[in-house]
Each structure stands twice: as structure tokens, then as C-alpha cells.
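Subject: sequence -> C-alpha cells, single chain

Hey, anyone have a minute? Need the predicted structure for the following. Not urgent.
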Amino acid sequence: MSGRFALTVDPTTLRERFGFVERPDFPPRYNIAPTQPIAIVCVETRDAITTRHFRLVRWGFLPGFVKEPKSFPLLFNARAEGIGDKPSFRNALRRRRCLVPADAFYEWQRFGRGKTGYVQPYLARRTDGATMALAGLWETWMGPNGEEVDTACLITTAGNGVSVAIHPRLPLVIEPADVALWLDPDETAMARACALLRPPADEVLCFVPIGDGVNRAGTDAPEIMTPVGPVISARPPQPPAGEQLDLI
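Reply:
Had a minute. Here:
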């Protein structure tokens, strides 16, 4: 399960990165947890004009067919495998794909069991330092009394060659060249968009061990992102600007 992530980039930079029309103002968040509000980027088409929008929604997907939310478990993550066949996600996958911006997400590696076991948190980010576009689905739940709640979930895939030793699952990372396709609301784009439901290439992400401050959902401070060990990455080392690596 992908249960925590961070969004610390300033709003202006985020708007330039994803091209939405709103000009939101929000503080950095270092430990976003399920059920909390999250930022998404989605599209709307009106009068044949499609525009990108910034929305704040609840992290906890509610399908449109749900009548009583208290009787239905909130869906924080959706497994990519077979997602198009699942009634809870089928319609959203067809028409309401979204992006969840994130500078980092967190995974936990378990060692041992019982009283002697422990978990090691890791911070994951893009090796190029860019803000990630995590794939998600969104839905507006409408209640019997006219109430509306915007909700969303993340889509997860199997781990890649770098992450699988840490955790078997990963959030689906959409590459910049594929953002427009993933957000395309035209139903004819669904098959091509579903081709993106795969783990990221090994060199896309790096992982670094951090302290256990992230384990507490109420702790939202930059200190939780402090490394306590070396970076794990498949990307070859890059030389400083103006220099070249020696070839042996």
C-alpha cells in the first residue's frame, strides 16, 4: 500500500509544471496520509475546449454507486492489474483519470517478525529531482440529500528492480511525455492510457532510508525527510557540470 507522500513544491512552480488554470495557494506538506485532502490535476471539456484544473479532494475513493458511505470502505489505492474490470473503478478509469502531484512518497521495508521485527521507512523521489505525477482516479460522490464529496485514489503497480526489495508495490508514475494521454477524457484514449499501467523504469526513482518520524501521521515537518543512510538507485553516477566520467 502506498500510504504517505509529500508535496512541498511552491504553488507557482506546480502550476507551471502541470498547466492548470487555477492559482492556488497552499503550504508545503511533508506527510500526507489517507483521508486527508490531497491535490489533484484533472481535466474538463466545455464547448469543445479542454482545460486542466487543480482540485483539492479527499484521499479515499468512493464509487458513484455507493449509497451509504459508512457502509463502504474508502479505497486509498487501486491495483493496476485488472483495474478496468473492477466495478468500483471502471467508470473513473474511462473518464476521470487524474494526476496526484508529489515530490516524494514513502514505503516501508519489514525486517523480521514479532517483537524482534521492525520496519525501515524509505523516501522515494525521482532521480532527476522533478515533481512526480502519480496516476490516480477521481470521482464526485453525490448523496441522497444533494451533498457532494470529491474523492480520489492512487493507482499502484508491481515494484521495479530497484524497489522490489523494499516493498512489492509502487505508485504508478506518469512520465512527462505521457501526462496529456493519461488526462485525456476522450473514452477512445482509454486503451492507450491503460498501456501506461506498468512499473516505472528502474532509473526513474531512487530511495533513501529515513527516520521513523514519518510513521506518525500527525508529524508534518521537513525533518522527517532527513536521510539516515545512502541512496539506493539504478541511475549511474552523474559527473559535476562541465566534467566527464572516466571510461576504463
